[in-house]
Amino acid sequence: MTFKTDQEAFWAGQFGTEYIQRNQGDALLASNLAFFAKALHQATGFKTCIEFGANIGMNLKALKLLHPGLDAHAIEINADAAQELAKVIPAKQVHNQSILDFSPSQQWDLTLIKGVLIHLNPEVLPQVYDQLFAACGRYLLVAEYYNPAPVAISYRGHSDRLFKRDFAGEMMDRHPQLKLIDYGFAYRRDPNFPQDDITWFLMEKNNFFGVA
């Protein structure tokens, strides 16, 4: 693969492969089950989904347990992660490529991105917002680190690899058809089902109801 940003190469390479070992297991699956049960409480009747940046599929594993029969697709830049992901969903529905190179060929009832926007080069965010919107048939769930103003922080000793901002707010400003229907916070010190201080936003695409 050839990449447009340093951040893509970072996650496609050794660091992205090492990430796999730190983010798997039954405890994470349990936390994800609790997370999605809450974050998607207001979402009804979705039968298809796509996750942008799915890694080995820990989010999709939880979603498929909560919603049996869910037809899931995913994008994943790291080849090793994509290989594991193909054990969770059909291999033909795994897109082993950069999000920046992905062109949605359809729309999905649920479009999901969790802990991924924070790692993208801020300059490409408008493009990714447009891709998420294009892929979204009804619901969009954005779950990321939140900050009212854009800020970059060190990530495991690396600079320019982690950014916080109001991703969901920027998306709604850019695409007014998106309406916020629920939001919340998952705390890393939750005694039962910790997440990594993620703020989540569930939006619905208004044209699902025929609104221009």
Number of structurally distinct domains: 1
User: How many E strands?
Assistant: 9
Any idea what the CATH architecture is?
3-Layer(aba) Sandwich
What is the H/E order?
HHHEHEHEEHEEEHEE
The largest sheet, given as strand count, sense and whether it forms a barrel, is: 7 strands, mixed
Query: What portion of residues is helical?
Result: 25-40%
Q: Please state the overall shape, judged from the principal axes of the Cα atoms.
A: globular
According to CATH, the fold-level topology is Rossmann fold
Please tell me how large the radius of gyration is: 16 Å
Q: How many separate helices?
A: 7
Say which CATH homologous superfamily is assigned. Answer: Vaccinia Virus protein VP39
> What spatial order of strands do you see in the largest sheet?
3-2-1-4-5-9-8
Taking the alpha carbons of the first and last residues, their distance comes to 38 Å
The CATH class designation is Alpha Beta
Unreliable stretches: none
